[in-house]
Design brief:
elongated; alpha+beta; about 30% helix; 4-stranded mixed β-sheet
């Protein structure tokens, strides 16, 4: 059985100064960290680091909403719960457009090649590409992810259906298919027509 060591006053003051600067991670922000009460230590005995930190409010006085708010980039790379089904006909697509897309007769107006990109950069490029294609009122675009080297394919190939299923991209898309059965490393995306 392990014995619990009791901290002395100096150690407790150092520990309090240390935990004061700790902020919770964004993913684990659901439960606030317990607040440790600072012992009453005379100012002369307090470590120099603690004296410098006295001007900053302790963690208990910072509003919880500020403690739990993560820094936000332009947009986040978050995996959607819904994914776009590749090769399945979605609602709102007429028979002629579906047959033309599936047969490969509908040629893409633009192509985006994501080879060699990390997931974050690939997502940013995909997002910008689809938004621009929609604003240019394009009908069909192609996105090349490559096959990847893993057993289930590369990261980009696996993540693409989830990225396309995001709430900001899903409304732009009518259907997604592989150009042909032998080419699983790229998809053709049939976009909805822009209004007016």
């Amino acid at each position: 059985m392990r014995r619990r060591r009791v901290l002395g006053e100096d150690e407790q003051a150092l520990w309090t100064a240390f935990v004061r600067g700790i902020k919770p991670l964004a993913a684990r922000a659901a439960r606030p960290a317990p607040v440790v009460a600072a012992p009453s230590v005379p100012p002369a005995a307090a470590p120099a680091a603690e004296r410098r930190d006295r001007a900053a409010p302790p963690a208990a006085m910072v509003p919880q909403s500020d403690m739990l708010r993560p820094a936000r980039p332009g947009f986040t790379l978050v995996r959607s719960r819904a994914e776009v089904a590749i090769g399945q006909r979605g609602p709102g697509l007429d028979d002629t457009s579906w047959r033309t897309l599936v047969s490969g007769k509908l040629r893409p107006s633009r192509t985006l090649d994501l080879h060699g990109q990390n997931a974050h950069a690939a997502f940013q490029r995909l997002h910008s590409f689809l938004i621009q294609a929609r604003s240019d009122n394009l009908r069909c675009v192609e996105v090349i992810t490559g096959l990847g080297s893993g057993r289930e394919g590369g990261v980009l190939r696996r993540e693409l259906p989830f990225w396309l299923g995001r709430p900001d991209l899903r409304p732009l898309i009518l259907a997604v298919v592989h150009p042909h059965a032998a080419n699983q490393g790229s998809v053709r995306i049939l976009l909805r027509r822009g209004r007016g």
